[in-house]
Design a protein that fits this description.
The complex is a heterodimer of chains A (249) and B (377). Chain A is of the alpha/beta class and 249 residues long. Chain A contains nine helices and ten strands. Chain B has twelve helices and five strands. The chains are: A alpha/beta (249), B alpha/beta (377). The structure holds adenosine-5'-diphosphate and magnesium ion.
Chain lengths: 249, 377
């Protein structure tokens, strides 16, 4: 597991039925890097994430994780590869009828054979990492939106994933909470070496944490730029990319 | 992946301090050593500090972290210093993160170990509150109806028509099936007895009276409780989960007028109609059995019913259906508005809407029967 490339997308086309959302996507994510997916609303960022985590099959092209082409391998191998990744959904997607503790314990009890006492310890450790120590017995409806996002992050990290997919972590959060969440994500990458693929609009996060990025466009239906965000800002000549990165219209 | 080396620690009690050698792979999937023996040793050795040597530590994950956290928590309690300098950088950063936000006081909940009396008390308070909710709801409903009569209710006519369509025409198939079968069953069971006296012709009386006064309304109500009552609870409950009800309230639109009244009116209008249909289907089912098995012609059957089953029986049945419609819609909407904010709460709301409706229907039927008896109709 030491190869430098963690995730590769080769000439992929994504479509809902006959409607093509994006085509000719080609990029790779290095191990332990923070990779940012940018683009205007509705250009297909969430759809791209759904392809990367194996929820949707590409219309054509390949998704390769750890040198395994996930759509060209057995169901077991695909499940095993995908279970090594964690996902934080746009809305948190915590199970509303379970407490935070049960939410985080679920992947642990499904995928490991750990004793329940040990699971409990891991759950409270994960909650303390995201600043929610002691909130095991709360239901998602009883905590704030920002806390729900962080609890979702704790659940995404339950199995110590190699790669973490995050959809708009700061959507709907106040600037301070958003910044703290960014810092948390960065800290997790630095301490655990987790690869992170993140959809975000926040310039702050894009420039402060992003190692590499791609920019999707709705009209062209493909990626119109890729590279480290700071370099894109300096060297890109495409007005759409520059406008996005400088927040001008 | 290199072959995993099992996790192991060795313990070097130098003077007053302990050097822990962490060796091998510290992953919870390959197993981490139990910590209790180490804690005992440390606590009994009267040490004042713990340091680490991690030169031979290979891979690690949350398994090492929970081991360390337990160790640190124990040392804090016993005033033992823990020197984290020799831990890998990632580990100490994660430890800092885990201790960065101290547990909020009072956040943890103690759910276990309530005495029985407390539980009984809580249940009683809960019942009282639920009863209050119910009365409030009925009060609001009366106010809403009053507004409606004055023509001031915020009720969207399109909604009303949609609800009428959903409750009425789409229920015809199942009502046809159930009512015809009930009519046939009534006829069959009755006929077997009546035949002993050679009085098969009275099947018509039995089926006509039974369907008109009781079974038409009851069967329609039961079907509608299962079809519409539960749907109302689930729709409104889901709106509760999505904070849509809150949105209505903040816009100053009463959920009672906007959501409950259209459904209530819809059932109030469709149930009597469905009941009439159900009565006729039941009588038709009885006719089929009479003609097929007991040699009573359709015409005889028809004359007998016309002679014997008076209009008042039909009217009582139809009025009952209207009352049941109000009850089913009320129970469904009430349970929906009462719904909690989780997926399972919506399921619970739908179930309890049906149960509440059925109980109310039967109780109301009994009450109406007694009233009719007293009035002599
Ligand atoms: N389930 C679906 N069926 C058909 N089209 C969809 C579906 N989900 C999303 N789309 C379309 O795909 C496009 C991309 O959506 P999405 O990936 O959610 O965008 P975003 O970049 O804002 O996350 C949008 O135009 C949307 O209308
Ligand atoms: Mg999206």
């Amino acid at each position: 597991m030491s190869q430098a490339l963690h995730l590769q997308v080769k000439n992929m086309t994504m479509a809902y039925a006959d409607t093509i959302i994006q085509q000719n996507l080609e990029f790779s994510v290095k191990r332990s890097e923070i990779f940012i997916i940018m683009g205007g609303s509705g250009c297909g960022k969430s759809t791209l994430l759904r392809h990367l985590i194996g929820l949707m099959q590409p219309a054509s092209g390949e998704v390769v994780i750890d040198d395994i082409n996930i759509w060209d391998s057995s169901v077991e191998e695909r499940t095993r590869t995908i279970s090594r990744s964690g996902v934080l959904y746009q809305s948190g997607a915590l199970f509303s009828s379970m407490t935070l503790g049960e939410n985080i314990a679920l992947p642990l009890s499904e995928y490991t054979s750990l004793a329940s006492a040990l699971i409990e310890k891991i759950v409270s450790y994960k909650l303390s990492l995201v600043g929610l120590a002691g909130f095991e017995d709360y239901y998602p409806s009883e905590i704030s939106g920002g806390m729900r996002k962080r609890a979702g992050l704790a659940r995404a990290m339950a199995l110590d994933p190699d790669i973490l997919f995050i959809d708009e972590p700061s959507a709907g959060l106040d600037p301070i909470s958003a910044k703290l969440l960014d810092r948390l994500i960065l800290e997790l990458r630095d301490s655990q070496g987790t690869t992170i693929v993140m959809v975000t609009h926040e310039l702050e996060s894009i420039f402060s944490v992003g190692d590499s990025s791609i920019f999707l466009d709705t009209d062209e239906k493909t990626m119109i730029a890729s590279g480290p965000p700071k370099q894109l800002l300096k060297e890109s000549s495409d007005p759409r990319v520059l406008n996005f990165l400088t927040r001008s219209v | 992946m290199a072959e995993s080396v099992p996790a192991k620690y060795t313990f070097d009690p130098a003077e007053n301090q302990v050097l822990l050698h962490l060796v091998g792979d510290w992953s919870y999937s390959t197993g981490i050593p139990p910590i209790s023996a180490l804690l005992n040793d440390i606590n009994s050795a009267k040490v004042t500090a713990v340091t680490f040597n991690t030169e031979k530590l290979q891979t690690w994950d949350s398994g090492l972290m929970i081991f360390l956290i337990e160790l640190i928590d124990n040392c804090k309690q016993n005033n033992i210093q823990v020197d984290k300098t020799n831990l890998p950088q990632g580990v100490s950063r994660l430890l800092n993160l885990a201790y960065a936000v101290p547990e909020r006081k009072g956040a943890r909940r103690t759910v276990l170990g309530q005495p029985v009396l407390t539980k009984i008390g809580n249940v009683t308070i809960e019942m009282h509150r639920s009863w209050n909710d119910m009365l409030n709801f009925v009060g609001d409903l009366c106010k809403g109806t009053y507004n409606l009569i004055r023509g001031r209710a915020r009720l969207r006519i399109a909604d009303l028509f949609y609800q009428i369509e959903a409750a009425g025409p789409s229920a015809l198939m199942i009502i046809t099936l159930i009512s015809t079968l009930v009519g046939m069953i009534l006829a069959f069971v009755g006929a077997v007895q009546l035949r002993l006296f050679g009085a098969e012709i009275f099947i018509a009386n039995l089926v006509g009276l039974g369907m008109a006064r009781e079974m038409g309304a009851i069967m329609t109500a039961i079907i509608m409780a299962g079809r519409s009552g539960s749907a109302y609870a689930a729709q409104i409950g889901t709106m509760q989960v999505n904070e849509e009800i809150d949105a209505l309230n903040t816009m100053g639109i009463s959920p009672i007028e906007f959501l409950v009244l259209p459904r209530l009116l819809a059932l109030c209008i469709t149930m009597p109609l469905l009941c009439i249909y159900s009565i006729f289907m039941g009588i038709f089912g009885g006719a089929v059995v009479s003609a097929g098995l007991f040699d009573i012609s359709f015409y005889q059957y028809y004359l007998q019913i016309q002679d014997f089953v008076e209009l008042k029986h039909f009217i009582i049945g139809i009025l009952k259906a209207a009352v049941f419609g109000v009850l089913v819609a009320t129970a469904g909407c009430f349970r929906g508005l009462q719904c909690g904010r989780s997926a399972s709460a919506v399921g619970f709301a739908a179930t309890s809407a049906v149960v509440t409706s059925l109980v109310l229907i039967i109780v109301a039927d009994a009450v109406i029967t007694v009233i009719c008896q007293v009035l002599g109709v």
